[in-house]
Amino acid sequence: MAETVAAALPTFAEFRAPPSWRAIEFLSDLHLSEATPRTFESLATHLRCTSADAVFILGDLFEVWVGDDARHAGFEAECAAMLADASSRRFIAFMAGNRDFLVGAELLDHCGVHHLADPTVLLAFDQRLLLTHGDALCLSDVAYQRFRAEVRGMAWQRAFLAQSLAERREAARRIRAESRHLKTMQRPGEWFDVDAAEAARWMRAARAPVMVHGHTHAPATHELAPGLVRHVLSDWDFDPPGAAARGDVLRWQRDGLARMPPAPAHSPC
Ligand code: LP5
Ligand code: MN
User: Fold this and answer.
1) CB 3.0-4.6 Å disulfide test: which of 4, 85, 101, 251 passes with 96?
2) For residue 23, what is the domain's CATH number?
3) From the CB of 133, is ligand 1 less than 6 Å away?
4) Which residue of 28, 63, 98 sits with most ligand 1 atoms within 8 Å of its CB, as the best mutation to test the pocket?
């Protein structure tokens, strides 16, 4: 049997939606970067035009985020302005992913975006929905879980953020290259996935029969056990032309969850 890391149950934060909300949307894994301008435009348009009361971004909004001091210039400043505009129209919440775990209170406060702990139980429509990025559930990815434990620690983050922006960007570039290289060593079908038994354990502990997560870029709806359903979001990429473009919005209303495409980019609303 493959090695996995034994994980302690996390603390489940709770967020109670205001009773006035009629529609809440979930999306993740936009991986925004200067190299994907159409994906940026798709998100900007969607956040401007959706009729949802709230949009919850479940991690990997950015391709990489090396610290909130990057928000003052260039592409990061455009992202901050887009988020600030979005939060002036509706409630926007952000949960960190493995690419943007260094997003901090400085950026979120500046943009008016609510921080969500990973995992969080969202209480709305008299139901409980468990939200997570998904990386913490990939237990068979032992090397990644060790890396994650290290970089999520206060000591590592303090030391990393003490470096110059240029040094941090270079470190991020190197770790991305290493991560890409490790992926090329895997055979198709051997990519790391969420551990279904651990996901079910979290859901039972959180008393949440439905989980929503991203990270794996493998959009699907899985029935883990009778009464336990896991919805996996797609990543977003509107930069390749034609049929390869993709980006899921999962919309939650009292009558259930539905997957849909975002509002067409550049639409007037
Ligand atoms: O992101 P994705 O889907 O390609 O792969 C993830 C895991 N990889 C990561 C790393 C990210 O790609 C890049 C993080 C950028 C953060 C920027 C700010 C902080 C910079 C930190 C600089 C040290 O999360 C990948 C998983 C995959 O998901 C599937 O779940 O397998 O995990 C890894 O690739 C991690 C390796 O397994 C272990 C890394 C060992 C460390 C090697 C150090 C190399 C040089 C470091 C230079 C400073
Ligand atoms: Mn991820």
Assistant:
1) 101
2) 3.60.21.10
3) no
4) 98
